Amino acid sequence: MSALEVTVDYDAIARNVEILRGHAAGADVMAVVKADAYGHGLVRAAQAARRGGATWLGVAQPHEALALRAAGDSGRILTWLYGPDVPARALIAADVDLSVSSPEVLGEIVAVSRENPRPARLHICVDTGLGREGVTPAELPVLLDLAIAAQEEGLVRIVGMWSHLAWADAPGHPTIDAQADVFREALSLAQDRRVGLEVRHLANSACTLTRPDLHFDLVRPGIAIYGLPPVADPYGERFGLTPAMTVRSEVILVKDVPQGHGVSYGHEYVTPYPTTLGLVSAGYADGVFRSGGNRAEVGIRGRRYQIAGRVCMDQFVVDLGPATSVCAGDPVTLFGVDGPSATDWARAIDTIDYEIVCRFGALRDKGAA
User: Where N6-(pyridoxal phosphate)lysine occurs, residue numbers (predicted)?
Assistant: First the structure.
């Protein structure tokens, strides 16, 4: 085994999408596979999502959309994160839907569309309160009128309007309804201008699971399709979702030490009794968070053990206790189906599980199944 082995259960991703389709209550599902599918592998995760019934794929970067087309995906794909340097020619030729947040981006798309037989499909992104991508409500009428003029020339088709929520992972937060109201006003503006929208979409993973009234025509789950719901399940069952990623290493040394023995740099952990230490072959050079020292847990032989002392560049130590059956060569699950979850790691080091899977997912090709 290499220092870390990162494996992904793509059947779990397919099943998770099936479950999310059930939560979507009639809306279509766009599986968000940006950032290399949150570290799970862009193409294979997208294929799994399609098997699970995703009718759309969503990516941030244009190169991700083009990579999906190159891999043979022929379904609807939306990409949204770019400025006026958007590679519109390649995206239009690849039949990718484009998000528009400004007149500058729209102008580039329209200019390229004049040279293409196929009109670009546009989704107008509205900033309903996140303060990130999207046109502000005050500027929406101007952008919408420019897009309508281009549509009347046959250069574009306005097929969607969308937005993104700031606090969807906090069900009941007042900004959710406030942003939904702004979004509905934007939709009314489009309707007043007789724009026939194919899809209206607002709901991310959290709202897919908790706010059926905000599903509209299409939902955009991201982290949930990888089995990590961003909101608590009131029944404690993860909404039926299965985490798809597992990260393992191995114990390479086991040894007995006396009480009061310092462990790792700085002796931030000192053994409280005579015990057995296990050395694990993985460290921060392999993606293990250094902040996990004395905080994060790993799984060995069905038990959980906290990391003892500092995480080093290429190794860390666990205190196995005074009576252990652990041996050198035993597998160590940092997170996955037989150990802690990515969410457990996130809570231990004060971050979110999105960061955990993206960090370790970057190492996937070193030993992924």
Answer: 34
Whether pLDDT at 154 is above 50:
yes
Q: Which of 255, 265, 273, 366 is catalytic?
A: 265
The pair phi, psi for residue 90, each rounded to 5°, is: -65, -40
DSSP-assigned letters across all residues of 122-187: EEEEB-SSSSSSSB-TTTHHHHHHHHHHHHHTTSEEEEEEE---SSTTSTT-HHHHHHHHHHHHHH
Catalytic residue among 34, 38, 226, 305: 34
Judge whether 366 counts as a catalytic residue: no
pLDDT band at 367 (very low <50, low <70, confident <90, very high): very low
- Calpha distance 108→199 (Å, rounded): 23
Helix axes 140-152, 103-113, angle to 10 degrees: 10
Query: Could you give the dihedral angle defined by the CA atoms of residues 150, 152, 158 and 159, in that order, rounded to the nearest 10 degrees?
Result: -150
Query: How do residues 36-59 score in pLDDT, each as one tens digit?
Result: 999 999 999 999 999 999 999 999
161 is in an annotated binding site: no
Is the pTM value of this prediction over 0.90?
yes
313 is in an annotated binding site: yes
Q: Is 34 labeled as catalytic in the residue annotation? A: yes
